[in-house]
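Dear colleagues,

As part of the handover before I leave the project, I'm documenting each prediction I ran so the next person doesn't have to rerun anything. This entry is a single chain, and its sequence is reproduced below.
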Amino acid sequence: MTTYENLEFFCNFKGIEKNLIPDMIRKDLEIYNLSHRKDALVSDLSGGQKRKLQLAIALLGNSEFILLDEPTSGMDPTSRRETWDIIKKAKKGRLIILTTHYMDEAEFLADRVAIVSKGQLKCIGSSLYLKNQFSKGYKVQVDKLDETKDLEEFERLINQFLPAEKQIEEIKKDNKNVYRVPHQVNDNFERIFGELDQNGD
């Protein structure tokens, strides 16, 4: 079956009114960037295009509960981002459960994230909660324009926004100036970047 025939079949399967089907399929083909492949056999689609078609089928009609198993697997970065936007818009009024190996994907799409290891649930919560509980903070790389200058002023600036027991630490990485900054700096990013803008030298 072709891309179009697959969408048509599942529209009928889900009980969508016949007169609405052609317009619905046309819009979906545009949304998923598959218009140029509407007459192609599904077996001839690339892996990423097959994923897009599977997602389009899953979201057809008014399904209130949807399971997605690694919906962006095999996609290039641009297609992944487009797919994220589609899923994000489709969330309203639905319960969507998806599996992924990408933490950035889970963070962008999920209201709650569950981490499973070896078949066991290890933790569950919002991405911010999980970061605060288990992450070591942010990594910040500082590139010096003048190699003769040290970074004591930069370190002093960041540390003044942190509790005494949560100071930044330097990480040795390929001779670059990389720091680990604790999450406690979250509320002060705006002020920190303002200071850096004003005192860049």
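The radius of gyration is 24 Å. The CA atoms of residues 4 and 38 lie 5 Å apart.

All the best with the project,
I.
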